[in-house]
Amino acid sequence: MAAVVTGKNRERPRGAARREALLEAALVLVAEVGPDAVTHRRVAETAGLPLASTTYWFASKDELLTAAVELAAARDIARIGELIDGYRPGDDAIAVALRVLLEPTATEAPHSRGPLLAAYSLLLEAARRPTLRDVAGRWSAAYMDALATLLQAAGSRQARADAQLLSAACDGLLLEQLASGSSADLTSRLRRLARALLDASP
Predict the structure, then answer these.
(1) Taking Cα atoms as reference points, which of 198, 183, 200 lies closest to residue 94?
(2) SS3 string of the chain?
(3) Residue 167 CA to chain centroid, in angstroms?
(4) Using one digit for the tens of pLDDT, what is the confidence trace for 124-167?
(5) Which of 42, 48, 10 is nearest to 29 (CA)?
(6) Left (φ > 0), alpha (ψ -120 to 50) or beta: where does 154 sit?
(7) What is the pTM of this model?
(8) What would the pLDDT profile of 167-195 be if each residue is shown by its tens digit?
(9) Rounded distance, CA 19 to CA 50, Å?
């Protein structure tokens, strides 16, 4: 999920750019206060735009959150696609797999709390809101497909199962890190796990 830049001194966006600015603001709020606290008014205030602009683009909170998930997912899926497209035989496939998992965006530093908090909050919200499940499923599938491709290239004979285990371990470690405020580097831990999975591959 890309970083969101807000500020009252910037020029107000218009048209489709205004819609995107509202979604950027929604993502900031999801990270800061959680989806339950997101309202049209708070989104408009965070974006520095009039309330009418929020209600013009989004008729309901469900519609606003769905569009925010779609924006976050599209950006992250594009990032993953660039990593896969850039992979070449002979490259360190495990290193690329760890970049898929540990770089929340193409521009953010790894483990940046804002994008990670927003991403996990929105994915968890999909368990409560059926309108979010389709895009959440596509988002998760992009990770599984990329990781399976890379782990197969690294020598796994059960690449999709290994991808699920590696992803689940990463999610657990990142959630623990977010909760504790730790800044520990997870790359070496996940590399050890990936190597162990490959060694155990029948």
Answers:
(1) 198
(2) CCCCCCCCCCCCCCHHHHHHHHHHHHHHHHHHHCHHHCCHHHHHHHHCCCHHHHHHHCCCHHHHHHHHHHHHHHHHHHHHHHHHHHCCCCCCHHHHHHHHHHCCCCCCCCCCHHHHHHHHHHHHHCCCCHHHHHHHHHHHHHHHHHHHHHHHHHCCCCHHHHHHHHHHHHHHHHHHHHHHCCCCCCHHHHHHHHHHHHHHCC
(3) 13
(4) 888 888 989 999 999 999 999 999 999 999 999 999 999 999 99
(5) 42
(6) alpha
(7) 0.84
(8) 999 999 999 988 888 877 899 999 999 99
(9) 12
Q: Which of 41, 40, 54, 43 is nearest to 6 (CA)?
A: 43
Structure tokens given for 127: 């368990």
Question: What is the rounded distance in angstroms from the CA atom of residue 153 to the CA atom of residue 142?
Answer: 17
Number of CB atoms found within 10 A of residue 75's CB: 18
User: What tens digit of pLDDT does each residue of 55-70 get?
Assistant: 999 999 999 999 999 9
Structure tokens at 148: 């399976």
Decide if 54 contacts 44 (C-beta within 8 A): yes
